[in-house]
Specification:
- With 240 residues, the protein is an alpha/beta fold.
- The chain folds into two domains: 102 residues, Translation factors (Elongation Factor Tu (Ef-tu), domain 3, Beta Barrel), CATH 2.40.30; 113 residues, Rossmann fold.
- The protein is 26% helix and 33% strand.
- It contains six helices and twelve strands.
- Strands 5-6-2-1-7 form a five-stranded antiparallel sheet. Strands 10-9-8-11-12 form a five-stranded parallel sheet, sandwiched between helices.
- α6 links the parallel β11 and β12.
- 34% of the residues are buried.
Length: 240
């Protein structure tokens, strides 16, 4: 959600109070200097959750940012988010400052339902901003007896994060000049083996990388109906 006037943001919180959760930070831990996992507590009775569900934080008087939930336990009243702290923005500033015991208002989960439960095999592509969605997707497919794997393009300093999270995923180095190309090269080797052609594909993270990966999938014969995508950020765009 982009920059909005403060009076509108105030009105949203006051007039739409049923759409907000009063959350408390239960715990927080850094998985790398840029990746922070935070556990929140809140009254989650009657709240719907699905892989890809996101919440909005009011990160400044005029700005909201959306973040995808990685784990959700309605009975325990807890949910988790894996944050990418990229710097130079109000969202990163807020997440860096959050500590156990802090209170914060967060919108109830919502957003696109990407998960295709009819598919037996699921393949994921993303980056640091995609870690929460992949965690939720991997848990959901595991509970349904389905397979889930994929490839993540990451900065070098974050390469050790996926093993810590227990992810079954290949990691490739993120490059600014040609986003997604190493992941696409890995995809092509898999396609030659014929192991993932009829999977459900989930593309998230950087819009430029998603566009390149989606184009490669279609060129390799993957049907558009089996490709789900959700851009989380784009160079030069604020509040995506």
């Amino acid at each position: 959600m982009p920059y909005i006037p403060k009076w509108i943001a105030d009105s949203m919180e006051n007039l739409l109070s049923s759409k907000f959760l009063n959350a408390i930070v239960k715990s927080e831990v850094y998985l790398s200097p840029e990746i922070k996992n935070i556990v929140f507590t809140a009254n989650l009775e009657g709240i719907d959750f699905y892989p890809g569900a996101a919440v909005n934080f009011r990160v400044s008087p005029n700005d909201f940012r959306h973040y995808t939930i990685s784990a959700f336990d309605r009975e325990a009243g807890t949910f988790e988010i894996i944050f990418h702290i990229h710097g130079n923005g109000p969202g990163s500033d807020l997440v860096e400052q959050l500590k156990a015991g802090d209170h914060i208002k967060i919108t109830v989960p919502g957003g696109r339902k990407l998960y295709n439960r009819e598919k037996e095999h699921h393949f994921f592509f993303g980056d640091e901003t995609s870690l929460s969605f992949y965690a939720a997707l991997m848990r959901e497919t595991g509970e349904n007896g389905q397979s889930c794997t994929g490839v993540l393009e990451l900065l070098e300093q974050n390469m050790k994060v996926p093993p810590v999270l227990g992810f079954d995923v290949v990691t490739v180095l993120k490059t600014s000049g040609n986003p997604g190309w190493q992941a696409i090269a890995y995809l092509q080797t898999l396609m030659e083996q014929g192991t993932i052609l009829h999977s459900a594909f989930y593309l998230t993270g950087n819009v430029a990388s998603i566009q390149g990966f989606r184009k490669a999938l279609k060129h390799l014969g993957v049907s558009s109906k089996n490709i789900m995508f959700q851009g989380y950020w784009a160079e030069g765009r604020i509040g995506l």
